[in-house]
Model the fold of this input.
Amino acid sequence: MALLQISEPGMSTAPHQHRLAVGIDLGTTNSLVATVRNSISTVLNDEDGSALLPSVVRYLPDGNVQVGYPAQSVQSDDPVNTIVSVKRFMGRGLVDIGDVSSLPYRFVDAPGMVQLRTAAGVKSPVEVSAEILNVLRTRAEASLGGELVGAVITVPAYFDDAQRQATKDAAKLAGLNVLRLLNEPTAAAIAYGLDNAAEGVYAVYDLGGGTFDISILRLSQGVFEVLATNGDSALGGDDFDHRIYCWLLEKGGHFALGAQDTRLLLTHARAAKEQLTDHAETRITAILSTGGVIDTVLTRQDFYDMTQTLVARTMQPVRRALRDAGLTVNDIKGVVMVGGSTRMPQVQRAVGEFFKQTPLTNLDPDKVVALGAAIQANVLAGNRQDDDWLLLDVIPLSLGLETMGGLTEKVIPRNSTIPTARAQEFTTFKDGQTAMGIHVVQGERELVSDCRSLARFELRGIPAMVAGSARIRVTFQVDADGLLNVSAREMGSGVEAAIAVKPSYGLSDADITRMLEDSSQFAQDDMMARALREQLVEAKQLLEAVENALQQDGEALLSKEEQVKINNAMAALRDILQTTDHLALKRATTSLNDATVAFAQARMDSNVAHALSGRKLSELES
Amino acid sequence: MGISLTDNAAKHVQNFIAKRGKGVGLRVGVRTTGCSGMAYKLEFADELGADDLQFSSHGVTLLVDPKSLPYIDGMELDYTREGLNEGFKFNNPNVKDECGCGESFKV
Done:
């Protein structure tokens, strides 16, 4: 018998179609998986009741792999094959990593991304991360009783495209469908429900085991925009442990300890640090392998004093981030605390004093990122009502349509957040035109032929009108999954047509990159091509208008010479239509225009006279 | 008759509703879908429907639409844990046959 969860009103799923989705915090030190169950975001524990999975992977000579605590416990015995903090290598080349001499791994330089030689062969950081993700996926499927439809995976806000792509690849390798990559500070803000809060600027202070990150986010209309990030990649909870360790050594007069004693004291230091979060003092007792004994009491005040400089060091990146964002402390509406080290009271106090407000701490700082990712995953999997959409993704290339002359008219510019909808009005080109072809394209180039064609459809049944007087509103709508709907509506008659397309279909990331590069490279060519096409459209339009006018009123209003003069100008323009010189085309168009000024004036006078004849003045004045 | 919750299930429902921040009770029903004909529906209820039948069990309000009741009359909901998985279990005396997954049933 399957076990059921409570759905939101009206959102029950059919049997075997539960939309199981998870959020994953793929951390440098620890990773977590969370899901929304019974409408509550919950971190999923392993069989031992532990939520954190140490991000440690050990490769054994027989090809077996250990992940998490088993790997962590042998880390110092088998450092070469036990990969810790693999996140630092994701999407990085050997040169990006910098000083590798302090790391125990056998690096292999490979194009694009560094690789690691282990007992089980050469592994890329993507493969190592996939092992971690695989364990989390298995845990989630066992906990939720079914296959996952997808996952939201968090990445640091400063991750570039290569690092994000590597993270996506790792997920794919682990058999996970990535619903979205989400910035870690954004996930934390979502966990606190700030996406439902009033608009404003928020700071996310993330002090982990070995790294410190500060992000300044702006929330507007449900979208979090990262205004600035800063941090210190070598500052975290471990440094606080180390200060206690040094204090113990000084106090007891112990020096030059062996590796085992060092590890023992660091473990005690860490325990003491955690004790001092809830207690005013803590006793540290340890027997060293040298026979030396440590038995001392550490007070909260002593701990505060010895770590004061560490806390102060986090404030420099905070100031820099604020300056980069062009903001002051007074602009910050809320501060979110992330990372286990933010449990320390002195950190909370310092942050509170700096920002002049109490930071948000009521969620577990180790879990807050995963909890937020799970909330986002739940929405993307379609388990909440439509009015609750979170708006967080962007479209990679502009979406637009073809206008006369094979030109692209962008309707939704690239980097617009989705879901989004934009409408633009277009009109008919010819008198009496009753249908309009709509060609949907994607890309940054000016000419349709250089963009990617996505779909074509026709709007029929437009009432016959003079060219330019029909009002056709074309609406582009992209939903949260990146699906595009295009509809066209003639505003006067209400006739409509629509089509659904998937904009990213068939476009690989390489294609997208190439198209973006092309657009800047060919900007000049594109501009000339656009000018020519526009001129051509104008020329043809004028030719047609003059022709119509001549047919109607030529004989009546023009002398023979005038007719010849206009016909000559028309012939000159027709002859030059094939040119690539837009200036020559413009000159010919202008001459035809000039040649017809008197004719146009005469036509207008004649029309007015015609309209007025036989009517009394009083009728016209009303 | 009607439907009821075990003590454990009621505690969980109360906890979920409290954390969710809104809800007047739990809506239980059946839908004609699934591989064996009928499937359970289990949702938070934000408002009472005009036709809803109401039952109270360990302080939790249970709402059932009159059409669903014959299929689940006398049912007790339990909350259990199976390995890492946990959730609600339906002990329904009306079930004659259910599919392997237990998510849909026949009466």
User: Anything to note?
Assistant: The longest helix of chain B spans residues 7-20.
